[in-house]
Write a structure and sequence with these properties.
The protein has 660 residues and is an alpha+beta fold. The protein is built from eleven helices and 44 strands. Helix 1 runs antiparallel to helix 2.
Length: 660
């Protein structure tokens, strides 16, 4: 892949990639759509470019590095190729890797070094649609060669040699590389993948030479705990990797044995137990014994709260914690850089507050019976010269059951930078931390709710309110949405009119022709046709009418309503959510359906919208204003949706309806 490949170039390459022989067209289209979705998510739909980089992460780490002797004292390193998502093993993760994935789709990948194993990017044992994700995640990763390095302990890794990608074995199975060392000059070896500019990626595992030191256990523990305590054991071990571990807890723990480096066990009855640890590697073994004392269970600490929550910059405050648990208690305070001292082991430390801001702090309390979970709290350091927040109101106080609703708060004082909503059990999610949360109200009823808002000029303000959840009649509660309905949608001609919602029969014919052109393009791309939906047609025409009359061009109208906001105004049936829920293309100034479809198909994002496979229904809006202030005169819109229930059996809001 050329360095700096643009998003548009990647989509163009993806569009042009032909289906491999014998691969089902629908499957190929699904795989291409999955990769397109992944690339869009990865770039946040901006004009970013994909920069090449060396292989990084667990999926690209060589794990099978081995040092072998030919029997005559000549040693060689061998390893298998790893570059997550590079299924054609050409050194670069790119669009072309979709081809071998499709060719091996559905194959058993239990052998990781087989052709199917190479394409099993997510490592679940089978080649499937989820293996498209590693291509998108590692897009642009380049492996041009491997650098062989050696280490003699103690010391640093030094370069031994380089192996080019072309030196590996060829074929669909995993590529294998080798490097002849002769007589090893180092105790340990590893390989590091390099990109075309020599930048290094994630190093491989370590392979010890025959002269690597045997294990030496320096220490192991812990040596005490209380009955019933669930705890971790570990050891400090010198020696060459890989190391094997065998623990024997002498009857003092469950399980009584373990073969991992850091076993988690539950301590048994009170008493003393002889614990033995044996560690081995390729050149020897070592054993270590110690006595484990199990004491009667006490009450470990629990931190309930911390106070105060903050103060003004430069002031001194005394911190305190409400803690349950048996004495004596040990304290470890950390103030996140917001105070001096920044750390303290006192039970009630006196601190001087630093620069204004919100600091994320922790308190760890322990005793001989255990540790309390880390208690996390926020320390607010307030600034002078400003005004704290005062909440004056919340909107709305009434919401419809089951209908997504956006809440907002009005305040006085300096600009807020902290929000905490609690809907009292009346919404999902019930807790939100942003300024205008979007939630789904629950059952009909009243709920005791609150919102907390703060800034850096004083303590946060708490505003309590009653949230009333009413039955969903289908009509929007938000006055902005209701005003949009009454101004632009409801005045349209009835759906049963001869020209439907359009100004003339010619525009109705244009809409039908554009629908046919859209479905022709979708059929050519191997995706299903979309069905005509008259309420979506009215929705698109209302938006066109709004743009042409007021004089703007965009997906978000002057009232701040997005396409999804407008869709929800007309009480649509259940549609796909979360994810890509609704697609809207708009155009202005074109004088024929053919011109509109041509320009949309020439635009990457408009084309993606037109050919998005999950869409089931569409409505096409057209509106003409000869005195348009922008000079476009004719406005066009398509409203795509993936419906999950029959639109004909649903009570939409229609043009001509009267609000309750």
């Amino acid at each position: 892949m050329p360095a700096g490949l643009s998003t548009d170039d990647a989509f163009a390459e993806l569009d042009a990639l032909p289906a491999p022989a014998g691969v089902d067209a629908a499957l190929w289209s699904e795989m291409k759509s999955a990769l397109a979705d992944g690339l869009i998510t990865g770039t946040q739909q901006t004009a970013r470019r994909f920069a090449s980089a060396p292989p990084q992460g667990a999926a690209s780490r060589v794990l099978d590095l081995a040092l072998t002797d030919d029997g005559g004292g000549n040693f060689s390193l061998t390893w298998g190729y790893r570059n997550g998502g590079d299924y054609d093993q050409n050194g670069t993760v790119g669009v072309a890797d979709l081809t071998p994935l499709a060719q091996r789709f559905g194959n058993d990948a239990s052998d990781p070094d087989s052709a199917a194993g190479v394409a099993d990017g997510d490592g679940n044992g089978a080649v499937g649609i989820s293996d498209v994700t590693p291509i998108a995640m590692n897009f642009g990763a380049v492996c041009a060669s491997y650098r062989v390095q050696g280490l003699t302990s103690p010391g640093t890794w030094v370069d031994v040699g380089t192996v080019l990608l072309s030196a590996g074995t060829a074929g669909p199975e995993r590529r294998v590389f080798s490097y002849v060392l002769g007589t090893p000059a180092h105790e340990f070896y590893r390989v590091v993948p390099l990109d075309g500019q020599g930048a290094g990626g994630t190093p491989s595992g370590v392979a010890p030479s025959s002269g690597a030191p045997p294990p030496n256990i320096v220490s192991a523990g812990p040596r005490s705990g209380m009955a019933g305590e669930y705890m971790s054991f570990s050891a400090v071990v010198e020696g060459a990797e890989p190391l094997s571990y065998v623990w024997d807890f002498g009857g003092g723990a469950d399980p009584n044995g373990a073969t991992v480096a850091d076993p988690m066990v539950t301590l048994g009855a009170e008493g003393e137990y002889a614990v033995t640890l044996t560690v081995a590697n390729a050149t020897g073994s070592d054993s270590y014994s110690f006595t484990l004392g199990v004491t009667p269970p006490g009450t470990p600490p629990v931190v309930n709260s911390v106070s105060p929550s903050g103060g003004y910059s430069g002031s001194q405050i005394n911190m305190a914690a409400d803690v349950d648990g048996d004495e004596p208690l040990n304290y470890e305070w950390y103030f996140g850089g917001g105070a001096t001292p920044n750390e303290s082991s006192a039970a009630t430390p006196t601190i001087t507050l630093g620069e204004p801001g919100k600091y994320f702090c922790t308190l760890q309390v322990s005793n001989q019976w255990g540790y309390a979970p880390f208690y996390q709290f926020e320390l607010w350091v307030y600034a002078t010269g400003g005004t704290p927040v005062t909440i004056t109101g919340v909107q709305p106080l009434e919401a419809r059951s089951g209908r997504e609703t956006v809440f907002s708060v009005t305040t006085t004082g300096n600009e807020p930078d902290y929000f905490l909503w609690d809907f009292g059990g009346g919404a999902d999610p019930n807790i939100a931390y942003w300024e205008t949360p979007s939630v789904v109200p629950g059952a009909v009823g009243t709920y005791d709710a609150s919102v907390t808002v703060g800034n850096l000029y004083g303590p946060a303000d708490v505003y309590e309110f009653t949230l009333t959840v009413v039955e969903d009649t289908g009509w929007p509660v938000d006055p902005v949405k209701l005003d949009w309905l009454e101004s632009w949608y409801l005045p349209l001609p009835p759906l049963s009119s001869s020209a439907r919602v359009f100004q003339t029969a010619e525009y109705r014919q244009w809409a039908d022709e554009l629908l046919a052109l859209i479905n022709a393009e979708r059929t050519a791309a191997g995706v299903g046709a979309v069905a005509f939906e008259p309420h979506l047609e009215a929705l698109g025409t209302a938006h066109c009418r709004h743009m042409a009359t007021v004089g703007f061009f965009g997906h978000t109208n002057p009232q701040g309503m997005s396409p999804v906001d407008r869709l929800d105004c007309v009480n649509p049936p259940l549609y796909a959510f979360p994810g890509l829920t609704h697609g809207e293309n708009i155009a202005a100034g074109q004088t024929s359906p053919e011109q509109v479809i041509s320009e949309w198909m020439d635009s990457t994002m408009h084309r993606y919208n037109l050919l998005h496979a999950p869409w089931t229904h569409v409505g096409i809006g057209i509106y003409y204003n000869g005195s348009d202030s922008q000079g476009y005169k004719t406005y066009w819109a398509t409203e795509f949706i993936q419906l999950q229930e029959d639109p004909n059996a649903h009570n939409w809001i229609e043009p001509g309806d009267t609000p309750p």
